[in-house]
Structure formats: C-alpha cells, structure tokens
Design the sequence.
C-alpha cells in the first residue's frame, strides 16, 4: 500500500460561496469550455464520473448516486457545511491558491479555515498589472508602480503565475523587451483601455514575465492547448541559471512534452493536476506516461480546482489512486522496493512542492 498522508495542492483556486443549481454546477465541471451541447451533460465526462464516485460518500450518500440526488443533498447541508465536509475529506494539508480569477471565490485564509489546512497565495501577474493600470495616470507612473507592485507581492506570496503564453505566445521571447519598446507598448495600452481592461499586449506581458523572473520566486506558466515543448522551450532555455524555477501548468494533452522539458532543464517542473482530473478512470495510464519521462523530483501534485470543492476532492483522490496503482505495480513486479516507492510518492505528493516553494 502506497501512502500519501500529506498533500500539497500546488496550484488551485478558491471555491464559490453561493448555492449552485444544476446548470451552474455543470458549467464548473466543464472547466470553462462553455455549456454542454443540447441534450448532453458534463456529468457524462471523466471528471463528472469521478465526482459521482468520490464525493457522495463525504456527504453521506452512496457512491455513483444520480446527480440530482447529490445536488439535493448538497443544498440540504448548505454550501458552508458541504464545502467543509468535502475539503476536509480531500486529505489536502496545504493549498497554494491562485487568487487571480474573477468571481465570488474564497481566498487562501478562508479556504484554509474551511479545509482545516494551511494556505498560501500565488499572485497572478496579469491581474496585478491590470490593477496597477487602474490607478496609474501616466506611463511613467504605471511602469514604476508595476515594478514596485511585483516587488512588494514577492514578499508575501510563495509564487507568481501567468497566462501570458495563452494570451500572446510572443510574450515568451528569449530576452526582455527594451525600455523604449516597453514605454511605447504601455502608452498604447493605457490610451486604449477602459478600467478593468485585460492585459494582452505581448510586449507588456513579456516585460511582466521578466520582472517576475528577476524576483526569484517560482513562476507558474499556464500552457493552454499549446505544445509546451514548442511554446516554452526557448523561454526555459533563456531563464536557465537565473535562479527562478518554472512550473508548467495544465499540460494535458501535451503532458509528455511538459514532462520532457522537466527532464531537460534543471529549473523546470511539471504539474500533474489537469492531466489526472481530465482523464479520470484513465489517470493511472496518463501518470505512468509522465513518470516515463520526468525525474521524480520534478513532478508536483495539484488539483487545479476552481469553484467547486468537489474538484479538490477529485484531484486528490485520482492522484492517490493513480500513484498507488502505478508504484504498487512496480513494487509487486520487483522493479522497485516498497521503501523507494513510498519515498517517491512522498516527493510528488508534497515534498517537491515544499522544496520548490520554500514551505518548510
């Protein structure tokens, strides 16, 4: 039996504070990909089946109960009590929370209290820049305040995270933009944006990434649907030796490419979250593929959850099940010793994250 008594969820978001109907709950199962097609449901996905497998028993129901019955029980308990039971039943002991999503989501402190766990903040760079732009009247003040805000955030956060590669692939260039280029881009963006406008300018995104690299904090990079080996390889090469670790998020279905980069570059790590949550009952096979390529000290557990406490549960349970089956098989076949399997499980579950983010 491979045990993972402590889980550090190295990338997640808060949970919704409001009661959810069937449609809203389903929308969050779909992970932001729009509503289900007419006549279909997101419960008929690997994630949906995993929710029905692992979450009902935590609320006093039998596994695999119908969605309507599960949601009725959820409403009967109330959002606070249901969230408390689910988060505490996940076995996650530390949450690293990306606070950059909109909506009425719990922050790190509230998530920690509800889940009887610890929590630390991960600061999203683009949101930070947008907030600075809302309160800066000139290009000079914007650029000065931006640098100061990133520097200040580095004192309280455990990491930065960025969606620059998803918004504009050019942002992942091999060197920072020049001062004149940055001033020009800032002037154009500030002149054309409304309050709350999203940052998508590739020059400013590039500038923001390199400010974060200079801070020395770990930098989480959302890969989106792109092959990370093509999109992030040059940036990884350019940042090697600078003292900042890069963590590639949401690599699935390019999880093998992300694992390869983690094996090639000493400062690159691969997140397991979306690869396992999206594949559900196939998570064991996907995890085995990742373990073929990446050194075991370069892989990090996460749930990648947002909105639903159920997704924290599913992320944790699928990870435990997949890891136990893969490593347990290798032990049973004599390829690994039980002692080594248990040690590696502890690294991926929590030890690697504690080292990378300085949690100890």
Sequence:
């Amino acid at each position: 039996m491979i045990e993972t008594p402590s889980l550090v969820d190295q990338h997640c978001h808060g949970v919704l504070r409001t009661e959810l109907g069937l449609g809203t709950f389903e929308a969050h199962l779909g992970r932001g990909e729009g509503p289900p097609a007419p006549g279909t449901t997101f419960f008929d996905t690997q994630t949906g089946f995993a929710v029905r497998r692992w979450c009902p028993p935590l609320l006093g129901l039998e596994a695999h109960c119908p969605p309507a019955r599960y949601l009725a029980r959820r409403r009967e308990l109330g959002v606070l009590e249901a969230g408390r039971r689910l988060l505490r039943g996940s076995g996650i002991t530390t949450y690293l929370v990306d606070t950059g999503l909109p909506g009425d989501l719990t922050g790190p402190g509230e998530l920690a209290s509800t889940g009887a766990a610890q929590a630390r903040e991960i600061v999203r760079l683009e949101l930070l820049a947008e907030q600075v732009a809302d309160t800066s009247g000139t290009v000079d003040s914007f650029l000065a305040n931006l640098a100061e805000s990133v520097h200040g955030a580095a004192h309280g956060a455990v990491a930065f995270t960025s969606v620059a590669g998803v918004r504009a692939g050019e942002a992942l260039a091999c060197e920072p933009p020049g001062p004149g280029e940055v001033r020009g881009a800032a002037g154009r963006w500030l002149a054309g944006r409304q309050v709350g406008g999203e940052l998508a300018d590739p020059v400013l995104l590039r500038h923001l990434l390199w400010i974060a690299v200079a801070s020395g904090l770990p930098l989480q990079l959302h890969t989106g649907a792109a092959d990370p080996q093509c999109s992030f390889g040059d940036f990884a090469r350019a940042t090697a030796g600078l003292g900042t670790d890069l963590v590639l998020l949401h690599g699935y279905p390019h999880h093998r490419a992300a694992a390869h980069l983690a094996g090639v570059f000493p400062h690159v790590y691969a997140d397991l979250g979306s690869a396992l949550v999206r594949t559900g009952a196939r998570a064991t096979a996907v995890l085995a593929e990742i373990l073929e390529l990446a050194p075991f000290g370069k892989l990090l557990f996460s749930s990648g959850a947002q909105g639903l406490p159920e997704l924290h549960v599913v992320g944790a349970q699928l990870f435990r099940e997949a890891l136990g089956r893969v490593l347990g098989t290798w032990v049973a076949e004599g390829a690994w010793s039980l002692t080594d399997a248990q040690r590696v499980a502890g690294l991926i579950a929590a030890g690697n994250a504690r080292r990378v983010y300085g949690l100890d």
